[in-house]
Amino acid sequence: MHPVLFHIGSLIIPSYGAMAAVGVLAALFLAQRTARMAGVDAARLWNLCVLSLCAALVAGRLLLVAVNWSAIRLHPQWTLGLGMVHHPLVAGIGALAAAGSAALYIRLRGMRALAAADALAAPIALGLACEQVGALLAGAGYGTDAAVPWAVTYRSPVAALWSGTPLGIPLHPVQAYAALAFLTLAILLLVWLPARRREGDVAGVCLMGMGAAIYLTELWRDPEGRGAILNGALDGPQIAAIAMVVAGALILRERNIRSRPPLRQEEVARMGHGEESESASQQVSKSAFEEVVSHPFHDGIKKQILRLRSASLRRMGHGDSQLRSGPGAAHE
């Protein structure tokens, strides 16, 4: 592949850095659209993204300087080459710094946290897709040995120098797998965002989707330098992926609990006390009926009904007497 995109004299433009920059710009511009779709102030969301990006870069570089301080003290010019170093720990520290600075900015500006997270879901997935394309070109986060027709083989010594990529060996293009997964997730989130039912749903699904993509693609990544847990059953990124899936599920569950109508609890209470509710409703109906019947307007109606009834009874009695006397009188 091509770890160096191009160079102008002694100035080298690495493929990974260029694609990461493209991903950042694409995410920033997409976030302006998703902000309007999510009902978030676009200007504030732009500031949040820039602040988070700066925090991630500073935190990652400080970590590299701290780890390589003994070598950098002897060769200060090596500080300029820290941007070529790619490691899961650096990415994790950068992500934590970005999330912390974003949370602080949201709190200080009084933004709706879940709405802002929904607006950032698709842009982040798109940015990660571009970043993985850069990793594929640079040979960073390379895959395991492969015998498939679409395997990639790196031959550039720069890839071995910057990322420790093995040369001349067919490898799984796991970065391409991850890029396709993140791009698909970004499209789905972008389509779903206008139709979401509650704030936070898109963010929760984003976390679960990214966690699943990271966990599965790690199965084809070379485990070198990624940490081994449980005798190699899991590595560092897979642990982070599990945490992301759990966090996304908790966000969705929390939203479902908060959005439950209060009448649902009253219905459950009524179901638990069915007999008491039935007797209470009967008492209410009886009292309402007595109230209606005792109204002064209905007293006149009752008197009129009684008069009509007594008159009809008198007529019926008169008719019976005529029937009893009629045949006898005729016979006599």
Describe how the helices and strands are arranged.
Elements: E1 4-8, E2 11-14, H1 15-38, H2 42-67, H3 69-74, H4 88-109, H5 113-138, H6 157-163, H7 174-192, H8 201-217, H9 236-258, H10 263-272, H11 274-293, H12 296-331
Antiparallel strand pairs: 1-2
Helix pairs in contact: 1-2, 1-5, 2-4, 5-7, 5-8, 7-8, 8-9
Low-confidence runs: 327-332
State the major sheet. 2 strands, antiparallel
Percent of residues in helices comes to over 70%
| First-residue to last-residue Cα separation | 136 Å
Strand content: under 5%
Would you report the number of β strands?
Answer: 2
What integer is the average pLDDT?
A: 80
Annotation field: number of helices:
12
From the alpha-carbon coordinates, what is the Rg to the nearest angstrom? 38 Å
Strand order of the largest sheet: 1-2
Derived from helix and strand composition plus strand pairing, the structural class reads mainly alpha
Shape: elongated
The helix-strand sequence is: EEHHHHHHHHHHHH
Characterize the structure shown.
Strands 1-2 form a two-stranded antiparallel ribbon. The radius of gyration is 38 Å and the shape is elongated. It is 71% helix and 3% strand. Helix 1 packs antiparallel against helix 2 (42-67), helix 1 runs antiparallel to helix 5 (113-138) and helix 5 packs parallel to helix 8 (201-217). It contains 12 helices and 2 strands; from the N terminus they run ββαααααααααααα. With 332 residues, the chain is an all-alpha fold. It has helices at residues 15-38, 42-67, 69-74, 88-109, 113-138, 157-163, 174-192, 201-217, 236-258, 263-272, 274-293, 296-331; strands at residues 4-8, 11-14. Mean pLDDT is 80; it is low at 327-332. The protein has a domain at 4-197. The longest helix is centred in the last third of the chain and has 36 residues, at 296-331.
